[in-house]
Amino acid sequence: MFLDFFSSTCYTASMIVQNILLANESYTHQNWLHKDICVGFSRLYYIIDGEAYYEEEGRKIRLKKGHLYLTPVKKPFTLSENREDKLLHTYAHITTLPTVKSLIEIPVTEGTPLADGVALWRKYTKQGDTELLLSVIQFILARVAHLTYNRGSTAARTKAYLDCLSDFVFDSDALCRALGYTREHITRKFSEAYHMTPKQYFNRRRMEYALIALEGGSKIAPLAETLHFSTPYAFSKAFKGHFGLSPLKFRSTLSQVPQK
């Protein structure tokens, strides 16, 4: 039944669960307060009952019953509760790819695939079945990404689409089909919001990836192939145009950094 449920549901994941660090369903502990959290994983919460708050950069919101929340990575925030009305919630600490950049809030409506996914999450959390739990949370994040993506502006949806491209291939026709707009409309709305075209933003992401990869020791030729450049020379030319020095020169500067 579990496999039938997932195989028959529209599953368009744009976020991959790499690991589950902790999963449980319970009331919060005594004097529950997490102040200025800044960690390398996300907290996925489903709120069952109680009163609790999320605060970030002076903005404070109440965590709503029947809602899912996904907290950002390496961005300070605070969690607190009303001690007279303790929070009952299902939760999981997870690492994802890509990482979560800002707080995500999604209502869970009865009778939807997302509600079915949450019901399975609660079931397998109680059973302690990690293998099935991983698949369920992956499904939940796929639905969350889908709902978040479809409720945003054209520019935000375009950015979300480009951020989720893992193969570094820019296909404007596929982008138009995914958003349901013409290339001219998408380009105009994106440029108004971000002061660059979708292709320019895509190329910037590609260069940022290249920079991190080179810092990690990647070789130029395989990296050029990964990023879908026609030749290592084409990659080097694009890299130099973006950063002002070639990949080879950049790598040589890394070896000159004094070791502590």
Characteristics of this structure?
single chain; 260 residues; alpha+beta; Jelly Rolls; Arc Repressor Mutant, subunit A; 5-stranded antiparallel β-sheet; 4-stranded antiparallel β-sheet; 22% strand; globular
Average of per-residue pLDDT values? 86
Share in β-strands = 15-25%
SSE series: HEEEEEEEEEHHHHHHHHH
Class computed from helices, strands and strand pairing: alpha+beta
Describe this structure as you would to a colleague.
This protein is of the alpha+beta class and 260 residues long. It has 2 domains: 2-150, Sandwich (Jelly Rolls), CATH 2.60.120.280; 155-255, Arc Repressor Mutant, subunit A (Orthogonal Bundle), CATH 1.10.10. Helices cover 45% and strands 22% of the residues. The chain contains 10 helices and 9 strands. The protein has helices at residues 2-7, 113-127, 130-150, 154-163, 172-179, 183-194, 198-215, 220-226, 232-243, 247-255, and strands at 16-27, 33-37, 42-49, 52-56, 59-62, 67-70, 77-81, 88-97, 104-107. The strands form 2 sheets. The chain has a 5-stranded antiparallel beta sheet with strand order 1-8-3-6-9, covered by helices on one side. The longest helix has 21 residues, at 130-150.
In short:
With 260 residues, this protein is α+β, with helices and mostly antiparallel strands.
Annotate the secondary structure layout.
Layout: H1 2-7, E1 16-27, E2 33-37, E3 42-49, E4 52-56, E5 59-62, E6 67-70, E7 77-81, E8 88-97, E9 104-107, H2 113-127, H3 130-150, H4 154-163, H5 172-179, H6 183-194, H7 198-215, H8 220-226, H9 232-243, H10 247-255
Antiparallel strand pairs: 1-8, 2-7, 3-6, 3-8, 4-5, 4-7, 6-9
Helix pairs in contact: 2-3, 4-6, 4-7, 8-9
